[in-house]
Amino acid sequence: MVTNEQRRRQLAREKFERQQQRREAARRKARLRNAVIAGGLAAVLAAGAGAYAAGAFSGDGKKNTAADASPDALPSAKKGPDPCARPAPGSPSAKTWKSEPEMTVDKSASYAMELKTTCGTIDLKLDAANAPHTVNSFDFLAKEGFFDHSKCHRLTTAGIYVLQCGDPKGTGTGGPGYTIEDENLKDSKLKGNVYPAGTVAMANTGQPHTGGSQFFLVYQDSQLPPQYTPFGTIGPEGMKTLKKIADAGENSGAGDGAPNATVVIDKATVTRS
């Protein structure tokens, strides 16, 4: 006959075993999630295939500890109300070019880029002195209407914190048909392999000199190797717009997916002063 004490011990043991099973399931799910994050961040999404590479790191450079979390603590894809307006009428560009445009940028002049998006204006100050080829390309593409009506197709919210734009296809596979050289990779602002909040930088395929038209906007300090041309800074209004977009989250629940906000660049302009 089973005594009350034996029954109590049996129930306690069964409860412990269930807890162990749940914890192991949570670890497996978190490992898979982190692999998705690492793989996604390492995927190439710029001039025809690429973006930027990074492992699953938090903003302070420490490894994620989500593998130790309970199932309830793991992220899930949640879609709230879209904070952005309807896009302006028009279609994304289908133009491509065989080679980089002729250099016309004045390295001693000041250049600014304004992205009028469905979520608000993103104002950029461009660094022609240290990234002349990149600024020259963006000046050319903006004048050609290349960015107009294009979606910002990617938002990352775990480990690195960026919004990626510049692909008229809206898939991460588009580009202008040419590539430009890397520049300004020894910028003093890139300390400790961190791209600080407010940086705008080029995406690439993970190989040198493969930038095209895709770029990313850093809305929170992000751990990244200095392999992506920093070519400007984001103004105060732009940071407010990015916060609105980031607060709406992304659609995968894994920290790397399409933004829940419908982010479309209605008009991109570059001005010289």
UniProtKB/TrEMBL annotation:
Alphabetized UniProt keyword annotations: Isomerase
UniProt-listed InterPro entries: Cyclophilin-like_dom_sf, Cyclophilin-type_PPIase_dom, Cyclophilin_A-like
GO molecular function, one term: isomerase activity
Biased composition (Low complexity): 66-77
Any single Pfam family the record assigns to this protein: Pro_isomerase
Residue ranges of the region described as Disordered: 1-28, 58-102
Domain PPIase cyclophilin-type as annotated: residue spans: 120-270
Extent of Basic and acidic residues compositional bias: 1-24
Function: PPIases accelerate the folding of proteins. It catalyzes the cis-trans isomerization of proline imidic peptide bonds in oligopeptides.
PANTHER family per record: PEPTIDYL-PROLYL CIS-TRANS ISOMERASE B-RELATED, PEPTIDYL-PROLYL CIS-TRANS ISOMERASE-RELATED
Protein name (record): Peptidylprolyl isomerase
Organism: Streptomyces luteosporeus
